Amino acid sequence: MEHMDLPEDELADACAFLVSEGLIDGDKTLWNHFIPYTIRLTHRGITEMERSRTAPEEPTDHFPPISVISIGGDNIGSPIQAGSPGAHQAVSMGDLDLNRVREIVTEFESQAGSLELSEDDAAQLRADMATVKAQVDSPRPNQRTIRDHLSSARAILENTAGGVAAAGLLELFQHVHF
Hints:
about 180 residues; two-stranded antiparallel sheet; 6 helices; 2 strands
């Protein structure tokens, strides 16, 4: 249950299904859990696992085919994540509101002197915001670059005691979806 990070009722349902399909056997617990204390693969379960592994491109009665994705060139802007237990992924769709980003740059420029940051954090924040400003002012703003540097700037402001000025900037960040 801990390894799969599932709620008890979902794991109990999965076990009940696998038992009903004859793929596993389980010893019941003596306390009020619905998940078997021990689980053993049945002969039928072993046979199906073997079929799945010997012909991974073919589905079995209970397992889907294994997907293999091969990309022969650039894969820009396409989120692909596979075989990553516990991983999280955030995807941005659509364009940034560059007017909101300009508001953040303007506010940063007016508040930069009053931010209470370490020397390293202040230098990194200035560099991030200079990159954002350069991109916003360019004829073809690179939205990925803007998102990356805004994310870095927000992390600096969130993870340091930046005072009232930082709180004001963070409020502006709430209105930009990146």
